[in-house]
Amino acid sequence: MAIVVYGADWCPDCRRSKELLLRTGTAFTWIDTDLDEAGKTHIRELQGGDPHIPTIVFDDGSFLVEPTDQELAAKIGVALPQHD
């Protein structure tokens, strides 16, 4: 599954999503929307307005905007550890 993560290093939700992908060994491409105007324009078009990050785009054309860890894990097909 090809995954592209649009975000920025200062964004806590972006860091959290990147960490989940790294922790689960999921390959992805990172596009920093502060440095890549085309990336920012792309997610603005996807979302139909002001771009929100992280935006995670999948090879089937679907995307998640500001997903929780549970939403992202479900999309990539991994289980998260249960916490008591």
Description:
By secondary structure, the protein is α+β, with helices and mostly antiparallel strands. Helices cover 37% and strands 19% of the residues. It is built from 3 helices and 4 strands. The chain has helices spanning 12-23, 37-47, 69-76, and strands at 3-7, 29-32, 55-58, 63-65. A hairpin with a 4-residue loop joins strand 3 (55-58) and strand 4 (63-65).
Task: Give the tags.
single chain; alpha+beta; 4-stranded mixed beta sheet; 3 helices
What is shown here, in short?
This protein is 37% helix and 19% strand. By secondary structure, it is of the alpha+beta class. It has a 4-stranded mixed β-sheet, with helices on one face.
List the helices and strands and how they pair.
Blueprint: E1 3-7, H1 12-23, E2 29-32, H2 37-47, E3 55-58, E4 63-65, H3 69-76
Parallel strand pairs: 1-2
Antiparallel strand pairs: 1-3, 3-4
- What coarse outline follows from CA principal-axis ratios? globular
Radius of gyration (CA) equals 12 Å
Order of the strands making up the biggest sheet: 2-1-3-4
Return the string of H and E elements. Answer: EHEHEEH
| Range of strand content | 15-25%
Helix content: 25-40%
End-to-end gap: 31 Å
- The SS-based structural class is alpha+beta
Oligomer: single chain
Largest sheet: 4 strands, mixed
Rounded mean pLDDT is 93
Q: Are there runs of 5+ residues with pLDDT below 50, and where?
A: none
| Tally of helical segments | 3
Number-wise, the strands total 4
